[in-house]
Amino acid sequence: MPNSFQTQTTLSVGSRQYTIHSLPLLEKVFPRIRRLPFSLKILLENLLRNENGLAVRAEDIEALANWEASAEPTREISFMPARVLMQDFTGVPCVVDLAAMRDAMRALGGDPSRINPLVPVELVIDHSVQVDKFGTADAFRQNVELEYERNRERYLFLRWGQQAFRNFAVVPPGTGICHQVNLEFLARGVFVDPQGQAYFDTLVGTDSHTTMINGLGVLGWGVGGIEAEAAMLGQPVAMLIPQVVGFRLSGRLPEGATATDLVLTVTQMLRKKGVVGKFVEFFGPGVSQLSLADRATIANMAPEYGATCGLFPIDAETLRYLRQTGRPAETVALVEAYARAQGVFHDASSPPADYSDVLELDLATVEPSLAGPSRPQDRVRLREVPQSFREALPKLTASSGGKSDPKALSVLWNESGDPTASDTVNGPAPARTQPVGEAVHQIRHGSVVIAAITSCTNTSNPSVMLGAGLLAQKAVARGLKVPPWVKTSLAPGSQVVTEYLRAAGVLPALEQLRFHLVGYGCTTCIGNSGPLPEEVSREINDRRLVVAAVLSGNRNFEGRVHPEVRANYLASPPLVVAYALAGRIDIDWEREPVGTDSQGQPVYLKDLWPSHEEIQAAIDRCVREESFRRIYASVYEGDEHWRSLQVSGGELYLWDASSTYIAKPPYFEGMQLTPPPLADIHGARVLALLGDSITTDHISPAGSIKKDSPAGQYLIRRGVEPKDFNSYGARRGHHEVMMRGTFANIRLKNLLVPGVEGGVTRHFPDGTVQSIYDAAMTYQKEGVPLIVIAGKEYGSGSSRDWAAKGTALLGVRAVIAESFERIHRSNLVGMGVVPLQFLPGQSAASLGITGEETFDIAGLVAGAEHNFSGEHRQLRVTARKPEGQQITFSVLCRIDTPQEVLYYRHGGILPYVLRQLLAGQ
């Protein structure tokens, strides 16, 4: 390594010495480093350590050291993460691709064993458990057994990968959510390589909420699976030096406000500000008032507020958390010493940083809130939820078919908007075991049918989890029960959570309210909410009811939580329990009781809400270092189900042609040692004409597989019965299933087929209506390239690689949108699909584009020759209408870096990496 700035030195910690690349030594050359944001100092150390004159040059280091806070990002750098984190939905296709790369390597005359992760890769199986069983003491055991029954092929494949690949570890099912396991166990704080070099723990992950680890001062963010594959194969993550927005916190949270309320407030503020593609960094006196778990809750939601990451600095609270979670004393000492040596340890003496922009929030102003009914940034004050739901109801009713039971309101409003006493539900119906029985007829618009303590946003946080338990304890003491139509669930982020709930004595109360443990994993938040009771489902569909889900997760996009639930609200775990007790979303908590106690007295939310002092006392008493040490001591062993999976060894995977879960993907078929020449696009047709806020949920196959869908019909032809379809997520390792489910979301609105929801389009020039998959296959037979046209924020949401993989396999060559979300734009390039952006003020509507045109896109060849920079960044599009008129306009090519140009020239990241490995043998 060149070490151009002579920054290599040693650091002594205890009896050990470590080699480091010192930022203070570099600061002598570039004094402005002293005021760099913490996140950029971490990136700068990464450049120093990886300087090689090729991917990282001295001028890259100089550019970052002289960072201009207000400058628009133009300079590309190469980031080399220390490790890669995966969950199983996105991890399985990554391992499938690695297995296919080994086959391709052998076919091209190379050594297959060279295909291995070059950095540590940790995969946590957490996305496959589903809430089939709930409300009983046996729910967890039954759900685990169903999980293994459904996913045996996938788990056998991962077991093969664990023994076939070096540097690859698998955390078995039933352990916890990847982000919480990362926070509590996997994160190192500081890495040490075999040569004794110490450096910052950094990572990329195949889940957008990888950002949760930023709460620990560890820099990391979500990427698509294909970009993660490149990173674990030693390829740098190409990125532009970002702008960094500072978020100053002051004060402390008031009584009644939770970390969830805070994060919903932060999310709303940052979404309004606009931080897509930027780093966010939290600072100010209020940071010291937040526990590490509170910080992680805020950092987790970076994808919801649109930032690449939301970093908190390393400080005394970081060290306290590392000790509390059982990290060895020498690890904690190294983290502190290294952070201080690099000038990134935050305390009263820390110099102020320069930021591109600054927002401020007084924690004392945070109010209890929810977010909904369909976007995480749509925060609603708790007291305004009834009015908010009332205003949203007409649109939600219309989307359910427009005809619903006229008596379906659980609260009728008078002219002033107040609930009328005559129809207010003052107390829950008597609790009954399933089936729900006659109580189902009490369901109205706004009835809560799902109440889920779920996902990683809050289940990492003892304050809100114990708060929920204490509220449940008080409710049980007053004789309150949950109405029988509410599907309740408790899905903690790790086994430690149930330990401290049990130690605090609140788990029995949660269970009495039917919040029994259903699994350790990402459940309701990703659509693994399982079926509603049959009577509830029938009532909703027969009466066209707009019912609600309340969940403690981070995503509530339309159609995501459950296909029959149209109003979905994010809330803190205590509020999840409260809404479960109320049984409806439109309760006015200030004026209406939750219910009546055993003495006939009204019980209000304020009577049940635990104080900060009560919660903190429970945390101090019950969250124990010993629990973390014991539970994580055997984290890789798994239960008896995992240990019983027997696989045969071998460096090449033995593909099973009969499998409908794992199949060899076609990405390397016919691949040559040199890439084919690029060509402009001629005569393309529009596969889908879409509006704003099209998420990866709309694009990528997710949730249940419908019997009459192209994927369902394919599985039936392969002999799979509908009851065994499982979910799209579980079948991400099989491209034939996944490409049939691309753009198949039940709520997708393709403007080529107005008034219809779902994965349909029109095939041109005949105009026949077909499924998107069938139309794409017809176009492929005809040799017609395809494009997708969309509005703003295309590809927002989870970092689902299949949103790009499926798009490419359907034959889409380009996507033209008004704006792109960061990860999906990168994923499209990684699959050889060109992201093109309308110029400011232009859109499909403003240009008069209907989607019936044919399209030529010129300038791709010339643009690639000049890295799509300067005048070559704009390409020319010509749209020809059936009547012969032409519309010509310019678009911005969003292949943003020279590294991405290389990926595009090779047809994607995977062919590029394989050719690089072959060339380097």
Q: If you had to describe this structure to a student in words, what would you say it looks like?
A:
With 921 residues, this protein is of the alpha/beta class. Among the domains are: 8-60 and 67-79, no CATH class; 369-399 and 439-610, Aconitase, domain 3 (2-Layer Sandwich), CATH 3.30.499; 681-700 and 742-905, Aconitase, domain 4. Helices cover 34% and strands 16% of the residues. The chain contains 33 helices and 32 strands. The strands form ten sheets. A seven-stranded mixed beta barrel has the order 24-27-28-29-32-31-30. A five-stranded parallel sheet has the order 6-5-4-9-10, sandwiched between helices. It has a four-stranded parallel sheet with strand order 14-13-12-15, with helices on both faces. Strand 28 (812-817), helix 29 and strand 29 form a beta-alpha-beta unit. Helix 8 packs parallel to helix 9 (292-300). The longest helix is centred in the N-terminal third of the chain and has 26 residues, at 139-164. It is globular and about 80 Å long. The model is unreliable at 410-434 (pLDDT under 50).
What are the defining features of this structure?
921 residues; alpha/beta; Aconitase, domain 3; Aconitase, domain 4; 34% helix; 16% strand; metal ion binding; 4Fe-4S
